[in-house]
């Protein structure tokens, strides 16, 4: 935990002794009443201004009942990366680790979708139904020491996911983009533009690492059995070009983390 994350509504309230943050502060950091720790207020948007979201949490109380915090703002969390991922719903046990990694890498938006060859029961697993995905992305944000968390949503099919992406892009057209260099740096990307890539083990597709994509970038990665021809056709109709990760068949989580790292490197973030 490189940054203690707090919801604004939790300030001045008792965070239970059983909360992992309370246990970390007391047992791992060895803090007591009156001490301070680096902290951030959770920001539920990948872009836009977030003044006072970084700072220090002052421990006003820490006992067997729990922990009470105050917050001293010192700075502003930088925006997430102009990258969104359309991801075939992974196995829940792998999905938790994967979402944590994607959040720590700074992916702005993650759309978990059902696929024709994917296991339908995954969409109804505790990863989603009990909100376990949220803890994963919070842990990823803690790891990266940035309180901004990615937008995560679930769609039942590739078609529904593409429709939702189009709707979000249309809504973003009316969002103010800010003024000057600072505004441009934090503005919501024009998701209708940029580069769209569908990863698929097609020998005729160019290698992802050989491309020079322009931001913002949308990546589509299939579930454990990959995309069907019909899904690839739907993605192509929505502007996605095929790209390959080489001649080895990768697990969904391996392909996701590796491809995100490659793209962020090409964009100059890594």
Which terms summarize this structure?
270 residues, alpha/beta, Ribosomal Protein L25, Chain P, Alpha/beta knot, 2 domains, 6-stranded parallel β-sheet, 5-stranded mixed β-sheet, 32% helix
Radius of gyration: 20 Å
The CATH topology of the largest domain is: Alpha/beta knot
The strand count comes to 11
Low-confidence stretches: 174-184
Distance between the termini: 21 Å
Strand order of the largest sheet: 8-7-6-10-9-11
- The helix content is 25-40%
DSSP helix count? 8
Give the biggest beta sheet. 6 strands, parallel
SSE topology string: EEHEEEEHEHHEHHEEHEH
- Which structural class is indicated by helix and strand composition? alpha/beta
The CATH first-level class of the largest domain comes to Alpha Beta
Give the count of structural domains: 2
Question: What would CATH call the architecture of the largest domain?
Answer: 3-Layer(aba) Sandwich
* Fourth CATH level, the homologous superfamily of the largest domain: SPOUT methyltransferase, trefoil knot domain
Task: Provide the residue-averaged pLDDT.
Answer: 91
General shape: elongated
Condensed summary:
It contains eight helices and eleven strands. With 270 residues, it is of the alpha/beta class.
Structural commentary:
- The chain is of the alpha/beta class and 270 residues long.
- It has two domains: 4-75, Ribosomal Protein L25, Chain P (Beta Barrel), CATH 2.40.240.20; 81-266, 3-Layer(aba) Sandwich (Alpha/beta knot), CATH 3.40.1280.10.
- It is built from eight helices and eleven strands.
- The protein has helices spanning 20-28, 92-105, 126-129, 132-144, 158-172, 180-186, 229-237, 252-266; strands at 4-6, 14-16, 36-41, 54-62, 66-75, 81-88, 107-113, 151-155, 195-199, 217-221, 241-243.
- The chain has a six-stranded parallel sheet with strand order 8-7-6-10-9-11, with helices on both faces.
- Helix 2 runs parallel beside helix 4 (132-144) and helix 2 (92-105) packs parallel to helix 8.
- It is elongated and about 60 Å long.
- 38% of the residues are buried.
- Residues 174-184 have low confidence and may be disordered.
